Amino acid sequence: MKISTNNNAPQAPAPASTKAPQTNTDVKPDANVFTKEDLRNLREQIRQTVRGQIAGAVVQGGGPAPPAPSSRTITIRGRDGSAPTVITLPSGLNARDVIPPQAVDISIAFFVTIAIIIIGLPIARAIARRMDRRPGPAQIPTDVSAQLNQLHQAVDAIALEVERISEGQRFTTRLLSEQRDSARQTLPSATNR
Fold first, then answer.
1. CA 14, CA 51: separation in Å to the nearest integer?
2. Reduced to 3 states, what is the DSSP secondary structure of residue 128?
3. CA 80 – CA 184 distance, rounded (Å)
4. How far lies 190's CA from each of 134, 179, 182, in Å?
5. Residues 111, 103 contacting (CB under 8 angstroms)
6. How does pLDDT run across 130-151, given as a tens digit for each residue?
7. Where along the chain do its domains lie?
8. CA distances from 45 to 3, 17, 74, 82, 155 (A)
9. Which of 18, 49, 90, 190 has the fewest CB atoms within 10 Å distance of its CB?
Protein backbone atom coordinates (compact mmCIF):
# COMPACT_ATOMS: atom_id res chain seq x y z
CA MET A 1 0.00 0.00 0.00
CA LYS A 2 1.45 3.36 -0.98
CA ILE A 3 0.54 6.72 0.47
CA SER A 4 0.27 9.64 -1.86
CA THR A 5 0.13 13.25 -0.74
CA ASN A 6 -1.87 16.00 -2.35
CA ASN A 7 0.59 18.28 -4.16
CA ASN A 8 -2.04 21.00 -4.67
CA ALA A 9 -1.89 22.18 -1.06
CA PRO A 10 1.07 24.39 -0.17
CA GLN A 11 3.53 22.47 1.99
CA ALA A 12 6.70 23.47 3.68
CA PRO A 13 9.74 21.43 2.68
CA ALA A 14 10.81 19.13 5.46
CA PRO A 15 14.34 19.63 6.79
CA ALA A 16 16.80 16.86 6.09
CA SER A 17 17.08 15.92 9.78
CA THR A 18 13.34 15.18 10.11
CA LYS A 19 12.96 13.14 6.96
CA ALA A 20 10.59 10.21 7.57
CA PRO A 21 12.03 6.76 6.99
CA GLN A 22 10.53 5.13 3.90
CA THR A 23 9.03 1.70 4.37
CA ASN A 24 8.43 -0.55 1.43
CA THR A 25 4.86 -1.80 1.54
CA ASP A 26 3.55 -3.49 -1.55
CA VAL A 27 -0.06 -4.10 -2.46
CA LYS A 28 -1.21 -7.56 -1.43
CA PRO A 29 -2.95 -9.84 -3.95
CA ASP A 30 -6.24 -9.17 -2.13
CA ALA A 31 -6.16 -5.39 -1.65
CA ASN A 32 -9.01 -5.41 0.90
CA VAL A 33 -7.16 -7.58 3.45
CA PHE A 34 -4.55 -5.92 5.61
CA THR A 35 -2.48 -7.54 8.31
CA LYS A 36 -1.81 -5.94 11.66
CA GLU A 37 1.75 -5.29 10.59
CA ASP A 38 0.54 -3.42 7.48
CA LEU A 39 -1.73 -1.26 9.60
CA ARG A 40 1.07 -0.51 12.11
CA ASN A 41 3.43 0.45 9.27
CA LEU A 42 0.78 2.70 7.75
CA ARG A 43 0.03 4.35 11.08
CA GLU A 44 3.74 4.95 11.72
CA GLN A 45 4.25 6.31 8.21
CA ILE A 46 1.36 8.77 8.64
CA ARG A 47 2.75 9.90 12.02
CA GLN A 48 6.21 10.44 10.58
CA THR A 49 4.82 12.40 7.63
CA VAL A 50 2.68 14.60 9.84
CA ARG A 51 5.51 15.20 12.32
CA GLY A 52 7.82 16.11 9.44
CA GLN A 53 5.29 18.63 8.10
CA ILE A 54 4.81 20.14 11.55
CA ALA A 55 8.55 20.38 12.12
CA GLY A 56 9.05 22.03 8.70
CA ALA A 57 6.33 24.57 9.43
CA VAL A 58 7.82 25.37 12.86
CA VAL A 59 11.29 25.92 11.39
CA GLN A 60 10.01 28.26 8.68
CA GLY A 61 7.45 30.32 10.47
CA GLY A 62 8.04 29.85 14.16
CA GLY A 63 4.76 27.94 14.66
CA PRO A 64 2.29 25.74 12.91
CA ALA A 65 0.94 27.24 9.71
CA PRO A 66 -2.70 28.29 9.83
CA PRO A 67 -4.92 26.15 7.65
CA ALA A 68 -6.30 27.51 4.42
CA PRO A 69 -9.78 29.01 4.91
CA SER A 70 -11.50 26.54 2.59
CA SER A 71 -9.81 23.40 3.95
CA ARG A 72 -10.79 21.21 6.89
CA THR A 73 -8.60 20.72 9.92
CA ILE A 74 -8.64 17.64 12.14
CA THR A 75 -6.84 17.64 15.49
CA ILE A 76 -5.85 14.26 16.92
CA ARG A 77 -4.64 14.00 20.50
CA GLY A 78 -2.58 10.97 21.51
CA ARG A 79 -3.62 8.62 24.32
CA ASP A 80 -0.37 9.11 26.10
CA GLY A 81 -0.87 12.89 26.31
CA SER A 82 1.57 13.68 23.54
CA ALA A 83 1.26 16.87 21.54
CA PRO A 84 -1.83 17.11 19.33
CA THR A 85 -1.47 16.19 15.68
CA VAL A 86 -3.11 18.53 13.18
CA ILE A 87 -4.20 17.16 9.81
CA THR A 88 -5.42 19.49 7.09
CA LEU A 89 -7.69 17.95 4.48
CA PRO A 90 -7.83 19.52 1.04
CA SER A 91 -10.93 21.49 0.18
CA GLY A 92 -11.57 19.52 -3.00
CA LEU A 93 -13.32 16.69 -1.15
CA ASN A 94 -17.05 16.50 -1.68
CA ALA A 95 -19.78 13.96 -0.96
CA ARG A 96 -19.28 12.16 -4.30
CA ASP A 97 -15.68 11.35 -3.30
CA VAL A 98 -16.76 9.97 0.06
CA ILE A 99 -19.99 8.05 -0.74
CA PRO A 100 -19.63 5.09 -3.11
CA PRO A 101 -21.85 5.30 -6.20
CA GLN A 102 -23.50 1.95 -5.40
CA ALA A 103 -24.76 3.34 -2.08
CA VAL A 104 -26.23 6.32 -3.89
CA ASP A 105 -27.97 4.02 -6.39
CA ILE A 106 -29.37 1.84 -3.61
CA SER A 107 -30.69 4.82 -1.64
CA ILE A 108 -32.34 6.31 -4.74
CA ALA A 109 -33.95 2.94 -5.54
CA PHE A 110 -35.19 2.66 -1.94
CA PHE A 111 -36.87 6.07 -1.97
CA VAL A 112 -38.38 5.50 -5.43
CA THR A 113 -39.80 2.18 -4.20
CA ILE A 114 -41.33 3.84 -1.13
CA ALA A 115 -42.88 6.56 -3.33
CA ILE A 116 -44.34 3.95 -5.70
CA ILE A 117 -45.83 2.04 -2.76
CA ILE A 118 -47.33 5.18 -1.22
CA ILE A 119 -48.85 6.31 -4.52
CA GLY A 120 -49.63 2.91 -6.04
CA LEU A 121 -51.41 1.27 -3.10
CA PRO A 122 -54.47 3.59 -3.08
CA ILE A 123 -54.66 3.42 -6.87
CA ALA A 124 -54.62 -0.39 -6.77
CA ARG A 125 -57.35 -0.39 -4.12
CA ALA A 126 -59.53 1.95 -6.21
CA ILE A 127 -59.14 -0.26 -9.28
CA ALA A 128 -60.01 -3.37 -7.25
CA ARG A 129 -63.13 -1.72 -5.80
CA ARG A 130 -64.27 -0.62 -9.25
CA MET A 131 -63.83 -4.16 -10.56
CA ASP A 132 -65.90 -5.53 -7.63
CA ARG A 133 -68.75 -3.08 -8.29
CA ARG A 134 -69.11 -3.97 -11.95
CA PRO A 135 -71.98 -6.38 -12.59
CA GLY A 136 -71.08 -9.55 -14.41
CA PRO A 137 -72.36 -10.29 -17.88
CA ALA A 138 -76.11 -10.68 -17.10
CA GLN A 139 -77.22 -10.61 -20.72
CA ILE A 140 -78.49 -14.00 -21.90
CA PRO A 141 -78.87 -14.47 -25.64
CA THR A 142 -82.47 -14.38 -26.89
CA ASP A 143 -82.46 -17.88 -28.35
CA VAL A 144 -81.27 -19.35 -25.04
CA SER A 145 -83.88 -17.28 -23.19
CA ALA A 146 -86.63 -18.60 -25.48
CA GLN A 147 -85.49 -22.18 -24.92
CA LEU A 148 -85.45 -21.65 -21.15
CA ASN A 149 -89.03 -20.28 -21.25
CA GLN A 150 -90.18 -23.27 -23.30
CA LEU A 151 -88.47 -25.67 -20.88
CA HIS A 152 -90.11 -23.90 -17.93
CA GLN A 153 -93.57 -24.28 -19.50
CA ALA A 154 -92.92 -27.96 -20.23
CA VAL A 155 -91.89 -28.63 -16.61
CA ASP A 156 -95.04 -26.86 -15.36
CA ALA A 157 -97.22 -28.99 -17.69
CA ILE A 158 -95.52 -32.19 -16.50
CA ALA A 159 -96.04 -31.18 -12.85
CA LEU A 160 -99.77 -30.60 -13.55
CA GLU A 161 -100.15 -33.99 -15.22
CA VAL A 162 -98.36 -35.74 -12.35
CA GLU A 163 -100.71 -34.03 -9.91
CA ARG A 164 -103.72 -35.29 -11.92
CA ILE A 165 -102.35 -38.83 -11.96
CA SER A 166 -101.78 -38.79 -8.20
CA GLU A 167 -105.32 -37.45 -7.67
CA GLY A 168 -106.68 -40.34 -9.76
CA GLN A 169 -104.73 -42.86 -7.70
CA ARG A 170 -106.09 -41.42 -4.47
CA PHE A 171 -109.62 -41.63 -5.83
CA THR A 172 -109.14 -45.25 -6.93
CA THR A 173 -107.65 -46.21 -3.58
CA ARG A 174 -110.57 -44.63 -1.73
CA LEU A 175 -113.11 -46.50 -3.88
CA LEU A 176 -111.38 -49.81 -3.32
CA SER A 177 -111.24 -49.30 0.44
CA GLU A 178 -114.99 -48.43 0.54
CA GLN A 179 -115.86 -51.58 -1.39
CA ARG A 180 -113.94 -53.75 1.07
CA ASP A 181 -115.66 -52.19 4.03
CA SER A 182 -119.09 -52.73 2.51
CA ALA A 183 -118.20 -56.34 1.60
CA ARG A 184 -117.22 -57.09 5.18
CA GLN A 185 -120.43 -55.77 6.51
CA THR A 186 -122.61 -57.92 4.18
CA LEU A 187 -120.79 -61.21 4.79
CA PRO A 188 -121.75 -63.16 7.88
CA SER A 189 -119.06 -63.32 10.47
CA ALA A 190 -117.63 -66.60 11.66
CA THR A 191 -119.02 -66.21 15.19
CA ASN A 192 -122.65 -66.03 13.99
CA ARG A 193 -122.60 -69.44 12.36
1. 10
2. helix
3. 136
4. 83, 20, 17
5. no
6. 988 877 667 888 899 899 999 9
7. 16-93, 94-134
8. 9, 16, 18, 17, 105
9. 190
